[in-house]
Each structure stands twice: as C-alpha cells, then as structure tokens.
Amino acid sequence: MSQPTSQTSTLGYFRWAFIVTVLGLILGGVLGWQSEGTIGGMLTVFFICAVLAVLEISLSFDNAIVNANKLKDMTPVWQQRFLTWGILIAVFGMRIVFPLLIVVIAAGIGPIDAVILAAARPDEYARIMNEAHLPIAAFGGTFLMMVGLSYFFKQEKDVHWIEVIESRMARFASIKGVEIAFVLLLIMLFSRLLPEAEASTFVHSAVYGLLTFLLVEVLGGLLDAQQKTMSAAAKGGLGAFIYLEVLDASFSFDGVIGAFALTQNLFVIAIGLGIGAMYVRSMTIMLVEKGTLAEYRYLEHGAFYAILILSVIMYVQTMVHIPEVITGLGGAGLIGLSLWSSIRYNRMERQREASSGMKHSHA
Q1: Taking the model in full, what pTM does it have?
Q2: Which of 75, 109, 148, 267 is deepest in the core (most CB within 10 A)?
C-alpha cells in the first residue's frame, strides 16, 4: 500500500469490484438456468445475486471505514496480506465455510454431508441456519459492541462529533473495564427479556463473544509487541490482521443470516455476498490511499456509531425480526451524517482561516 495519493481515480479503485460483479452475475444467471431451466428462473437468480450484493455493500460501509482505520497503522506488507489473503478468507471463509460450519455443528454431520444438504435440501439447510441465529446474534452483537465502545472509551480521544455523549465517555475511560461492565449489564438485561431456555444460550454466546474480543486484543498486543522487538519498523502486523479477520467475521454474521430471507441456495448467497465483499475491499483501499479518514474528521465517529447500533439490532433480533434494509440504511445514514458534519467543519475552518488572513493583512 502506498502513501496517500490522488493519482488513482475513484472509479479506478473499483475496477476489480466491477469485474467480479460482471462475472458473479453471469455465474448467478448460469446457476439459475441450471436449477430452473427457464429464462424467468435465470433472471430471478440474477436479480437475487444483485440484491444480495447491494445488501452486503449497504451493511458494510462501516466495515470498510473501520478496516481503513486499522490498516493505515499497519506496515505495507501486512496491508497487502490483508487485502489479498484477508479478502479471500472474508469471501470464501465467511460466505461459504462459515454457513457450512454452523450446519456441521448444529446438525452433527460431516462437512461433505453439509455441502450435499445445501445442494439437495436447501430448505432444511436454511432451517438449521435460522435456528442458529440466536447464538450467532449474541456472539456477533457482543463482539461488535466491544469494538464500538472501545473506540469511544479512550482518555486520549479529543475529537468529538456528538460532544455531549463522547466527552463523557472519554472522561469515564479512566475507569478500568468500564466498557466490559456496560456490555455485561446489557447482556443481563436482554437475557431477562428472553424465555429461560433461550436466555441461557444468549448469555453463554454473548460471554464467548466478549471473551473472543478480549483474547484477540491480548493476542494482537502480544504478537505486535513481539514484532516490534524484532524490528523497530514493524507495526500493526499479525495481531492487527487477526483482529481485522474476527471483526470482518462479526460484520458478516448479519448479512449471511439475512441472506437466507431472500434465497436458501448457499451458492447464490456466496456469489451475491462475495460481490459485495469486493466493494468493501475497494472502499477500504480508497479510504487508506486517499487519506479520506484524515480529511473528514467525523467519518470514523459515524462508522463506530453505526457499529454500536448494529450490535444493539443484533441483540433485538434475538426477539423480533428486523429487516436488513433498516440495518443497512441506518448505518449508511449515520455515516452520511458524519460525512456532512465533516464537510461543514472543513468549510467553517476555511472561512475562519480566510477571515484570520484578512485581519493580518489589514494589520
């Protein structure tokens, strides 16, 4: 990854995403023709792939911004590893292997049997996936909540978008483990709203989500500290890579489960979400290379607020279904607001500098 530059056009960053979109939609059309044998069936699958791609992109604006936030502190070598190997893990691991793994564990069958089940009995496959929604939502929601709160509960954080909330959170950051206590309290409150059998599953899965976040943080710190002792220039290496992979997995839970509302075909889901994941990669590269996060000071704030809202939505989804469109639009709306606030701030700063310059020239 090069230093921030504006040589590449915005469309240039999405070249590979466009290529994958065309190939993915063609493959989706072929799958539709093979499974239905009609033009109508082919167009239906084609349309579902397109909708799934849009769904994944809308749910992943915040993912791209958070990735860019972490990537800008990583060495070029590890940046490149994440954007090549990391994206392969994201597309194939989370969109194909993860749903299969859930069925393997939930149904107690082998991986090959899970693939056969997905291909031959998609309705049964979808039923198992939907039954696994509660523990997945609890785990993913807790991990994302810790990610969001850790951003705001920082003593050194001095740039605030929503001053009244963020300044208080920064002040309370001096209390060790305050975000952990907050999340544990929320877990207990939500568990009381669920039936007894489901409450136990929810608490266990949520605690595993919390432990995973803490483990990744500790492991990341140890690995990156070890690299720093080997080389003073090494910064943000394997530890940051693992953190980003677990983070991407948590973001993917919602999209993967939600996709089953549109189709029960695992392969169609993989194509649609895989297309969306390529746009996330392109957005991430663009944000890092163009230095967009530094240029728009509140953009990160919007992304982390979107993460917090997504985590709460995942908790609420253990009780009632919330359409993915609402989740996606909510996150995109917050990021749009933060972008608008950043542009307004930049404009006011330029006006202030211009008026200050005029005063000096008159003096």
Answers
A1: 0.73
A2: 148
